[in-house]
Amino acid sequence: MTTTTADPATDLTDYCDQLADAALAASRSLAASSGRQRNAALREIAVAIRAGRDELQKANALDLEAGRSSGLSPAMLDRLELTDARIESMAASVDRIADQPDPVGKVIEGRVLDNGIRLQKLRVPIGVVLIIYESRPNVTCDAAALCLKSGNATVLRGGKEALHSNRAIAACVRRGLESAGLDPAAVQLVNTTDRAAVGALLKMEGRIDLCIPRGGESLIRAVVEQAHIPVIKHYTGNCHVYIDAAADDQMAVDICVNAKTQRTGVCNAAETLLFHAEAASSGLLARVCEALAAEGVEIRGDAQTQAVFADAKTATDGDWAAEYLDKIVAVRVVDSLDQAAQHINHYGSKHTDAIVTSDLAAAEHFVQVVDTANAFVNCSTRFSDGGQYGLGAEIGISTDKLHARGPMGADDLTTTKWVAYGTGQTRG
Amino acid sequence: MTTTTADPATDLTDYCDQLADAALAASRSLAASSGRQRNAALREIAVAIRAGRDELQKANALDLEAGRSSGLSPAMLDRLELTDARIESMAASVDRIADQPDPVGKVIEGRVLDNGIRLQKLRVPIGVVLIIYESRPNVTCDAAALCLKSGNATVLRGGKEALHSNRAIAACVRRGLESAGLDPAAVQLVNTTDRAAVGALLKMEGRIDLCIPRGGESLIRAVVEQAHIPVIKHYTGNCHVYIDAAADDQMAVDICVNAKTQRTGVCNAAETLLFHAEAASSGLLARVCEALAAEGVEIRGDAQTQAVFADAKTATDGDWAAEYLDKIVAVRVVDSLDQAAQHINHYGSKHTDAIVTSDLAAAEHFVQVVDTANAFVNCSTRFSDGGQYGLGAEIGISTDKLHARGPMGADDLTTTKWVAYGTGQTRG
Description:
Two copies of one chain form a homodimer.
Chain A: H1 12-31, H2 35-51, H3 53-69, H4 74-80, H5 84-99, E1 107-112, E2 118-125, E3 128-133, H6 138-149, E4 153-157, H7 163-179, E5 187-189, H8 196-201, E6 210-214, H9 217-226, E7 239-243, H10 249-261, E8 270-276, H11 277-281, H12 284-294, E9 298-301, H13 303-308, E10 313-314, H14 317-321, E11 328-334, H15 337-347, E12 352-356, H16 360-369, E13 374-379, H17 386-389, E14 396-398, E15 406-408, E16 414-425
Parallel strand pairs in A: 3-4, 3-6, 4-5, 7-8, 7-12, 8-11, 9-10, 9-11, 12-13
Antiparallel strand pairs in A: 1-2, 2-16, 14-15
Helix pairs in contact in A: 2-5, 2-7, 3-7, 5-6, 6-7, 10-12
């Protein structure tokens, strides 16, 4: 086991170097571990979290006190708090990750070549994964557990306002690893709030294989700007619902209301509704807008929308690109499905986009031409979620196209390895 | 169809913008095309290449003449030349790509959720792929064809010494696209040798989705340094063969000689041989070195190698990291399989690494702990190749871990899309 001896306060460069070296060494030993060992460690982590409740809450109290005196908002303080229920929920989530099937070793493809070589493509751990996140301390536990499940060492950099809580959680996690005989260095918490540490870690090609930033767009952009290592990004969720000429009226109302209002602050909530001109002239547009207004949603529409729903404010170009995360929706009338697709491809964030239609050809065309991670037919955008998809715990949702797209589960924390077994074959 | 009107000589920024816009628009229309249409276009491209032989050779003569007067090496001039046989081989390769199964639309996973939503994860085109390459003009045709097969628009930036040849090939490709009714803007040749064009294109996030540089390490490092878009990299091939204590002697000799000498200038040739101490003391190390020396290979060994093979020169630390691409090999004696794995993980390039052993546990342990794209048991490293693997045409070999690892075929030029068909489901 490699440990960090440098003090981050006085020697940040050495500290980050040691931390990355320790994670790399631990990732090598994890690569030699079995799924049974990793699951045993996950069970022990859940035990340690439950047993560590007092210690976790003592540490959390320090963060809450500091947060109150530095004027954190009530919402932020709420996110930070480790209640009994949240500690149990963290532990239960680790247990559920242990229950999931093992992504490592899964055979993706394979064949016997003409020359007799038996070739397989397998899922294997990526190596060392850096997770950068904001205030919620439960991410420390969730991210470490998902990375461990998939055989990766983790470097965790949480928000500064949660440092005491994160330290206490990481201590439980490392205790769990030790109990199961795995290298506790497999989970490294960046034990400083110095921002320069992030910059240094993001440049550690060859030691850190991947960064997943979890947080707002500004955090993610700052990470991308500094990174030399690959970053899987989740920018924004500007999701659309397109109401086709052939939409069922009641279904259109239900899906639009659900997609917009069931939870507004989330990335898979709808932000723009597009109506085929026939759905505008038929009265459906007005009916949807009335149903949304009844839920307290502010409508911002184009001229055609305003013509049939007088309460609509005027939408500007900025509205088409906005991720409101609030009770506001942009509404536009289009002449065709292709115009809807062009709008979505131009303004959207390639997250989740839905069509409501009874026309099979329209459904299939929409699914083909809309460039999005999640193309939905006749259901709410709110379903685009790893849990809903049955992927188990989710490490995030990728709006990238490379490596992983859409909700990311444990499989997406692996890479592949071609393995060939021969009997002495040489190439002629 | 979008076209470029700006002159790259006088207005490079506008030219690059128009080129990326045209490629993006064409990628949208390709997304709506069927595999049958794309295959028809590939057939038409092969026809156009064959029919364009005179035109291709006339353009090629200009490049060859310029190359001769600027003092290109005979090897470089040879790579540049479009002989009758090479033109036929380009066309035949496009026909073979048409024959391959369609990667687009392949269902990777899927299920019916509890709520009745039918969920599928499909392969879909990435969008716009930028290929940056060096002197060989056939890459223009191969890369365009593979990207078209997988539904992607391509921006091609070849070596300046092949510009006339590349223009003529791209004209044939676009003629083929037009004959099949697809947008010829789907293949864009960067029609300038100005290096600033590369810098501009590498920053076109949102319009260019991926860059694949094909060439030497310095080209790739320069691309990575400038890129804001994702880059799939192939750095070096420092491949290893480890001769275990339980290796079959004749198999060890055959595999080492084949891996080192069958073709030395390629990335999957072996550069370092590691011998278990027992394979050194048994005489096997000496026998392998003699067989290599008989093929004209220079041996650079550690002290233990020199002790049993006196002709070995002294290996330095630089030798362990070297990609010789030549008749030179580094040889080291290790005490254990784990020490061999540590050496490979430390000095290797994660490309292709082989073990020769009759011990099943040793083979399995090697495959698990060596962090490499291609882990081979009892066969030559020379087999790590898309053609050998049955992937069809190869766009390159990735030494990255994200998105694609090892030989990359048409599947690796796709991303995924989750598609959900519902009947009005909303989230409760």
